[in-house]
Amino acid sequence: MKDGWGQRASKRVLPFRTLSRGQARPPQVLGRAGPGELPVPETGGLGALEVGSSPVPRALEKLAYLSLEAFGRVQQRASLDRVRIIRNVPYLGTGMRSHRLDVYVPRALKGPLPVVLYVHGGVFVGCSKGTHFFVGHTYANAGFVAFNLNYRLAPRHKFPAALEDVAEALRWVHDNAARFGGDPSRIVLAGESAGANLVASLAIACASARPEPWARKLFDAKVAPKAVIAACGILHVSQATRLGGKPHLGPIVRSVLRLLPESYVDLRRPWAQGELDLLDPLRIFESNYRFSRPLPGFFLPVGTDDPLVDDTRRMASALASRGIAHEVRYYSGELHAFHFMFWRKAAKRCWADTFRFIDAQLRPPVASNAPV
Question: Is residue 45 situated within a structural domain?
Answer without folding.
Answer: no
